[in-house]
Structures are given as structure tokens and as C-alpha cells.
Amino acid sequence: MNVENSNPKTFPFLMYEGHAEEAMNLYTSVFDQSEILSISRYGKDEAGKEGSVQLATFSVKGQVVMCIDSMIKHEFTFTPAISLYVNCDSAEEVDRAFQQLSEGGEVLMPLAEYPFSQRFGWVQDKFGVSWQLSLA
Predict the structure, then answer these.
(1) Spatial separation of the C-alpha atoms in residues 77 and 113, rounded to whole Å
(2) Which string of DSSP letters, residue by residue, matches 49-90?
(3) Dihedral (C-alpha) 125, 127, 130, 132: value to the nearest 10 degrees?
(4) Could you read off the pLDDT of 39-83 as tens digits, one per residue?
(5) Reported pTM
(6) Largest CA distance in the chain
């Protein structure tokens, strides 16, 4: 997906402190139809740590997400009040994503059948990002 040609106006934007690339690699490996689209890095003598992510875009099942490694130390992190909701194409994809994203993270709703989905789970990954995973 080419960000420039699609002309979206709104993106999820994730701010990390040194883990943006690791997070992108995890997310794009977990979900089908996902890829890293662009990465620009801080260079020597720039505001952020050299080599860290100044700005990057990746897609998760077609949804473009932006992320950075913040050059400023901050006292806040992600909260489950905002989550990325992913409609997975198969029960196997839900199970795989749930297992991989919950490693080192926290299960917020166990993987199960619910009145609104045959297969659903909600996790907060090891970076603090919240994911709701549902069978489409």
C-alpha cells in the first residue's frame, strides 16, 4: 500500500521509547497482509538517538499505522482505553496473533467465544499496545 497515493487523513500513531522497530517487526510478522512501508532514522548529531526510528509507517491488514521512537522521555505510555481492533480471516490467525501478542504482555479478555464473536481475545502486548482480535 502506498501511503502517498491513498491520501488518508487519519492514522493510528504509536510512540515508543526505543522499541518502534522491534514492535513493527512483531506486528507485521503476526498478521497476514501486513508490511513495513517506510522507515526514516535519526542520524548522527540529530535530536534522537542515532539509528532509532524518527518516523515509520507500517500496515496491519491494510490499515496504515505510524510510529516513532520519542526523542523526549515521557511519563506516560499506552492504555487499553484505545486499542487496535483486528478482524482476522481465520480462527488460526486469531489464535496465532493472540499467542504472539500476549507473550510478555497481559491478557485483558481470554480467547473464547463471545456473543459478538465466535473467536475473540483482547491483549496488551509487551510494549503496552492493546489489541482486540476477532474472527471476521
Answers:
(1) 30
(2) -TTSEEEEEEEETTEEEEEEE-SS--S----TTS-EEEEESS
(3) -40
(4) 999 999 998 999 999 999 999 999 999 999 999 888 998 999 999
(5) 0.88
(6) 54
For residues 24 and 58, membership in a common domain is answered with yes
The neighbour count for residue 11, using CB atoms within 10 Å, is 13
Nearest-CA neighbor of 86 among 130, 36, 116? 130
pLDDT tens digits, 16-28: 999 999 999 999 9
Tell me if 35 sits within 8 A of 52, measured CB to CB: no
35 shares its domain with 91: no
Scan for cell 535530536, then name that residue. 47
Give the three cell numbers for residue 80: 487499553
Q: Which domain holds residue 105?
A: 84-135
Q: Are residues 64 and 93 in the same domain?
A: no
Q: What is the distance between the alpha carbons of residues 39 and 23, in angstroms, rounded to a whole number?
A: 13
